[in-house]
Amino acid sequence: MKKVKWGILGAASIAVRKVIPGMQKGAHCEIAAIASRDLAKAEEAAHKLGIAKAYGSYEELLRNREIEAVYNPLPNHLHVPWSIKAAEAGKHVLCEKPIGLTVAEARTLIAARDRTGVKIGEAFMVKTHPQWLRTRELIRSGAIGKLQSAMCVFSYFNRDPNNVRHKAEWGGGGLLDIGCYPITMSRFIFGEEPTRVAGTLQRDPDFGTDRLASAILEFPSGQSVFTTSTQSAYFQRMHFLGAAGRVEIEVPWNAPNDRPCRIIIADVMGASPKIEEFPVVDQYTIQGDEFSRAIRGEREVPVPLEDAIANMAVIEAIFRAADSGKWERPERTAQSAHRGA
Distances in Å between the alpha carbon of 328 and those of 81, 153, 216, 308, 313? Predict the structure, then answer.
């Protein structure tokens, strides 16, 4: 298969440190250009990463007819508008999570996708990582009995006032930044949509963004509980409990690309847990290659817009629940309707 020529919108930290180097290792990706509103910043990233072309505006990159697809790691409030502009320029789009700020905003991407005929997907790299595919396989095979509960903690510490995660008007806050992970993977593993959610938030008095968020998702067949924080000790773990055992994902989100990943499987009594180890991979390499294969028609988009919007509906419901102090029902979307939630 011929490699897909990619352009990068912005020189965001995640793009420069993780996504671009990962994609450059792929069999199906060629990073051909990078753009920034600061040309010097784009040129610096291009020089560091060996990218042939650098542009001082996103529009210039989108006018490059050689570019087939773009990766959009811009701040959250720019995900939808620039993904639409890329689609209208005839580029396929892999957009960072969360897909947008609201369900209504994210739905405009469906219209753009259908109007232009391009592929648009959300960049949840975890959904194609072997440790997650194996976890889903184990649970669906009945290895831990009927799945009853999922539990997750994901936290880090950052109070830098210049960080985009602390700008409320840009879609900052922990729930959008990292709470989206346990939500999407609970949905992925249960294979269902939550029927109602409860949530509570603590907001930073200086930034106005949520720095501590906890939620309960009630699925037709079980429950998922998670806590995320942007001002706590760095930690991440996710557990799945079944009637006959459990699965624990040791490093669920920032899976290392320099050592094997592990999941832990234990029986109902917890004795003699079994450890499954996975060969070293880069989840950003896999993500880039899988989306490139979708562009070439070899597979479906790994995280299509319908799934992204269903995830956004759960996030919105948690925000509503935190305000109302009551259980809230996620808005019924095309994805949730398909799953029968």
Answer: 28, 22, 11, 19, 11
Q: What's the CA gap between 295 and 301, in Å, rounded?
A: 8
Instruction: State the alpha helices, DSSP H only, in 198-327.
Output: 283-295, 305-324
pTM of model > 0.90: yes
**Among residues 19, 60, 28, which one has the least CA distance to residue 43?**
60
Q: What's residue 336's pLDDT?
A: 64
Look up residue 185 and give its two tokens: 């993977």
**DSSP SS3 for 106:** helix
Q: What is the DSSP letter of 74?
A: S
Q: Residue 340 — very low, low, confident or very high, per pLDDT cuts 50/70/90? A: very low
C-alpha triplet 149, 153, 157: angle, nearest 5°: 170
For the stretch 168-195, pLDDT in tens is: 999 999 999 999 999 999 999 999 999 9
Based on its alpha-carbon atoms, the radius of gyration of the chain, rounded to whole angstroms, reads: 20
Report the distance separating Cα 82 and Cα 105, nearest Å. 12
Q: Give how far the C-alpha of residue 201 lies from the chain's centroid of Cα atoms, to the nearest Å.
A: 21
